[in-house]
């Protein structure tokens, strides 16, 4: 199936992913979780979460294998890898990994649709807790698919707040309330924060401000907030002069999504409305930091 694990696609916190092929010729991605003597919580989380989903913007689980301490998950293969490969700041328009602003906007919109489905469209609501570029996969048409549900939490639709033990996620994308409850309750709005950070990274926010902030992710949203017109103009010029409106829309939405207080963040359904709205209808949010 994997030709003795000859083609490694990537390595994550829970294990490695390999390229393989089913007997019928379909290409697959096989996620081999690290050997564990425990109860395999991350494995059961992923199987339980993703087996309940069916959406164009959520990766499809084709099967799984459990043999002793060995655990494997079999997914559809994503030709264009993860979004991490295509996030950029000041890359040249001639870089093969640079996508047009129109395509980036479509990816932003697709991720939002996938998250809205997880939060509202499933019988059992799913909070992902690890939204980041590495966990957004792109198929041959660059349609984004949310992946890696090892940290996900299942909860009933009527539960607006959820209980978790300790922080979970990736530094830089974890919502403040996941670290400290003084910021508010943990909820689906925690995924909204990670989404906002991904959107800002997609429009090149981190690289654009790395010199001013001494490579710290702590201050870059404040820099964007204070230099919005300058940034949107500069970023838009990377690929085309007509991209400024798209860049501004994505940046404003990203800033709304990373508000420190969860109740100040939009729900993913509201994010979709914002993405479809006119730029004149979007205002600058309160400072996020």
Automatic annotation (TrEMBL):
Q: Enumerate the subcellular locations listed in this protein's record, separating them with semicolons.
A: Membrane
Cross-referenced SUPFAM superfamilies, in alphabetical order?
Protein kinase-like (PK-like)
Drop me one GO molecular function for this one.
protein serine/threonine kinase activity
Its main localization is membrane
Q: Where is the Protein kinase domain?
A: 3-279
Entry-linked Pfam families: Pkinase (PF00069)
Residue ranges spanning the membrane: these are none
**What GO cellular component is one of the record's annotations?**
membrane
Q: Which UniProt keywords apply?
A: ATP-binding, Glycoprotein, Kinase, Membrane, Nucleotide-binding, Serine/threonine-protein kinase, Signal, Transferase, Transmembrane, Transmembrane helix
Q: How does it sit in the membrane?
A: Single-pass type I membrane protein
Q: Where is the signal peptide?
A: none
Question: Where along this sequence does the record place binding of ATP?
Answer: 31
Family assignment from sequence similarity: Belongs to the protein kinase superfamily.
Q: List the protein's name.
A: Putative phosphorus starvation tolerance 1
Q: Which organism is it from?
A: Triticum dicoccoides
């Amino acid at each position: 199936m994997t030709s003795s694990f000859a083609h490694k696609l990537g390595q994550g916190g829970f294990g490695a992913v390999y390229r393989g092929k089913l007997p019928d010729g379909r290409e697959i991605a096989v996620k081999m979780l690290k050997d564990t003597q425990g109860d395999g919580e991350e494995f059961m989380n992923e199987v339980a979460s993703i087996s309940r989903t069916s959406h164009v913007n959520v990766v499809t689980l084709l099967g799984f294998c459990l043999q002793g301490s060995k655990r494997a998950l079999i997914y559809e293969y994503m030709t264009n890898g993860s979004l991490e490969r295509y996030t950029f700041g000041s890359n040249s328009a001639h870089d093969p990994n640079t996508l047009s602003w129109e395509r980036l906007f479509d990816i932003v919109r697709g991720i939002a649709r996938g998250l809205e489905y997880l939060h509202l469209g499933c019988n059992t609501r799913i909070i992902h807790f690890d939204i980041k570029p590495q966990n957004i996969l792109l198929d041959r048409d660059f349609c984004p698919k949310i992946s890696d549900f090892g940290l996900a939490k299942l909860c009933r639709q009527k539960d607006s707040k959820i209980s978790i033990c300790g922080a979970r996620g990736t530094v830089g994308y974890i919502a403040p309330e996941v670290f400290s409850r003084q910021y508010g309750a943990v909820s689906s709005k925690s995924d909204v924060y990670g989404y906002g950070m991904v959107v800002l990274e997609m429009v090149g926010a981190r690289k654009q401000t790395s010199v001013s902030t001494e490579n710290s992710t702590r201050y870059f949203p404040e820099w964007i907030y204070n230099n919005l017109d300058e940034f949107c103009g500069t970023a838009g010029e990377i690929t085309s002069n007509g991209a400024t409106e798209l860049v501004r829309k994505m940046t404003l939405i990203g800033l709304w999504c990373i508000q420190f207080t969860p109740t100040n963040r939009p729900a993913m359904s509201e994010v979709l409305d914002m993405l479809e709205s006119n730029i004149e209808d979007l205002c600058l949010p309160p400072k996020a930091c």
